[in-house]
Amino acid sequence: MTLLLIVRRSLRQHALSTIITALSIALAGGLLMSVWVVKEQSQRTFTQVNTGFDAVLGARGSKLQLVLNSIFHLEASPGNMPASDYEYIRRHPAVKMAIPIAVGDNLRGYRIVGTIPELFTRVEYTPGRHFALASGRFFDPAEKEAVVGSFAARKLGLSVGDSFHPFHGLIYDAANQHPETYHVVGVLAPSNTPADKVVWIPIHGLQTMTGHDPRAATDVSAVLVQLRSPSAGFMLDIMYNKQGNRLTFAYPIGAIMAELFQKIGWFDRVLSLVAYLVALVSAAGVLVAIYNSMESRRRDIAILRALGAGRFFISGAIVFEAALIGAIGMALAFGAYVAIVSVVAAIIQAQTGVLIETFAYSAVMLWAPLGMVALCGLSGLLPAWKAYRTDVAENLAPIS
Amino acid sequence: MSSAPAPLQLSGLKKSFTVPDGGRRTIIDVPGFALGSGEHLALRGESGSGKTTFLNLIAGILAPDAGSILVGGSDMAALGEHRRDLLRASAIGYIFQTFNLLQGYSCLENVMLGMTFGARADRARALELLDRVGLSDRLRHRPRQLSSGQQQRVAVARALAKRPKLVLADEPTGNLDRRNSREALELIRETCLESGAALLVVSHDPEVLGAFQNVRDFAELNVCLKEAAP
């Protein structure tokens, strides 16, 4: 009780430095937790997102490029493959379902992907969930109709009944407009998958778009594959990747994405290091703030000692105060965390369509506050040592 | 029939300090001194004569080089620092010339802090004492919001709140005007009388000394002052 009173009064007496120090800890703690959660959640999300498919078949090239292009709608396509390859894998006994996609156009920067309606009606993008419509209906494969992902619809301001002209290429260039007019007949409900940022049209429409090479009018960019069993994946992997040399079979998708995170792991480590350093600097801030105030505390310490407070009690109060500043800072850090992670999540969603889970429990939310409070407590040891050594008689002036 | 130990009994008390030339100078050399239960005594001494050091030794704030300081039967000089702190907190009330109130705390908190390290902080007792010293309407005031006289009254209430057996007062009116000085002194004496505490006041102020029947020269006790005298 007395300890709390003394610490509370001390915090109030040094309110400005307390607030500034606590805010710097809040920022450091928020940054540390954000880096950790974004790293953890994006890794978990991106290695789990497969939009319901086990593998991707595409032109010969990098598996990662193939996955990024056909599942996440990022990166350039490694090339096209003949329709016969699609037909072959579609009929393969090891394959449960095969959905072709074709890319090559955009609508003001949002990728237009040609596919077949089965993507919406038969594929469960996550177990038990099909793509649902927020409004309208799915497109008719024979018509110039489009179904727009929820995020793309919001950003492009499209709704059912609107029409648009596609633009050639994956990068928006106003000069490269196709003459075809597509009508929006449906808007997808949010699925928090990359499908949300895509404008979907019938594959035939994209293949035969004015200006596209008529010789490739039946080619597909990739085939999204659902397998009957995991062993089928390894069999097809051998068939396409080891025995064949025309196509690439990317399987399993999660492992390929995990490789990506391994490759950019150094970046995570740099970010974490920066966050740790910021945390360390903030803890040093606590030390400096309290240490610098020790001169003005001497008399109070001497009075408390004269009233009977022991050296350890006074030192403990200083350490407790430092830890409390850390605790206040870390309480505020959750606010900083929410702000930082929300912004980062919005950026990730804008880039990939994937919404990372920002408020899921993570161990960092336990160890970061505890660690920071402990670190701040440790940083209070030096001022506490100074308090411990305060000479009572000398500071109870005057002497008669 | 056993009698209660005297609030203060000391013998062979010595304290020296290192002086700038590196040697040691004895400041306190008191062969013997005692204060009975409920006894009030004023010690007369000039500034710089070692009065504060003497009180600090009795209060256990300083450790002596030699001798014993029995406070209510416990030898302050023989105790470790922690036990000295506890003994001071429970048995001794200390009133300072500059009041030594904690500026960041209210009057009530200052008085309660006077109790908290030696016993349970008793809010009712603190309120009672603040009422006794006429400050029941200043409970939440900070020291700087009070006059000097009022501050010294808070200091008196703080020193007596824990019902000490021994009250030490170091130039308790040194920072007060004549009227406040008289009032503060009366208050200290009255409250000590009411609680039965022994009171040891050190001062060089004739008015303070005149208020006590029992007055002794500090030089009589502290033999090193006698030796230093011409």
Architecture (CATH level 2) name of chain B: 3-Layer(aba) Sandwich
Question: What is the succession of H and E elements of chain A?
Answer: HHEHHEEHEEEEHEEEEHEHEHHHHHH
Placed side by side, the strands forming the largest sheet of chain B appear as 6-7-8-3-9
Instruction: Report mean pLDDT of chain A, rounded to a whole number.
Output: 91
Low-confidence segments of chain B? none
Work out the count of structural domains of chain A. 2
What structural class do helix, strand and pairing data of chain B support?
A: alpha/beta
**Largest Cβ-defined interface:** A-B, 28 and 41 residues
- CATH topology heading of chain B: Rossmann fold
Strand content of chain A: 15-25%
Return residue spans of chain A where pLDDT drops below 50 for at least 5 consecutive residues: none
- State Rg of chain B: 17 Å
Span between termini of chain A: 35 Å
What helical percentage do the residues of chain B reach?
25-40%
Backbone shape of chain A:
elongated
CATH homologous superfamily designation of chain B: P-loop containing nucleotide triphosphate hydrolases
Strand content of chain B: 15-25%
Domain count of chain B: 1
Verbal overview:
The complex is a heterodimer of chains A (400) and B (230). Chain A is of the alpha+beta class. Chain A folds into two domains: 2-46 and 264-395, no CATH class; 55-251, no CATH class. Chain A is built from 14 helices and 13 strands. Chain A has helices spanning 2-13, 15-48, 63-70, 83-91, 118-121, 150-156, 203-207, 230-243, 253-263, 265-306, 311-352, 364-379, 381-388, 392-395; strands spanning 55-59, 95-107, 110-115, 124-126, 129-130, 133-136, 145-148, 163-164, 167-168, 182-188, 199-202, 222-227, 247-250. In chain A, strands 1, 2, 3, 6, 7, 8, 9, 10, 11, 12 and 13 form an eleven-stranded mixed sheet that branches. A two-stranded antiparallel sheet of chain A has the order 4-5. Chain A starts with a helix and ends in a 5-residue tail after the last helix. Chain B is α/β, with parallel strands linked by helices and 230 residues long. Chain B has one domain (8-228): P-loop containing nucleotide triphosphate hydrolases (Rossmann fold), CATH 3.40.50.300. Chain B is built from nine helices and nine strands. Chain B has helices spanning 51-58, 81-91, 107-116, 123-132, 148-160, 178-195, 206-210, 218-221, 223-228; strands at residues 8-18, 24-35, 40-44, 66-71, 74-75, 92-95, 166-170, 198-203, 215-217. In chain B, strands 6-7-8-3-9 form a five-stranded parallel sheet, with helices on both faces. Chain B has a four-stranded antiparallel sheet with strand order 2-1-4-5. In chain B, helix 3 packs across helix 4 (123-132) and helix 5 (148-160) runs parallel beside helix 6 (178-195). Chain B is globular and about 50 Å long. The A-B interface holds A 1-2, 5, 9-10, 12-13, 299-300, 302-313, 392-393, 396-400 and B 45, 47-49, 51-53, 56, 59, 61-62, 81-82, 85-86, 88-90, 94, 96-98, 100-105, 109, 113-114, 116-118, 121, 158, 170-171, 174, 202, 204.
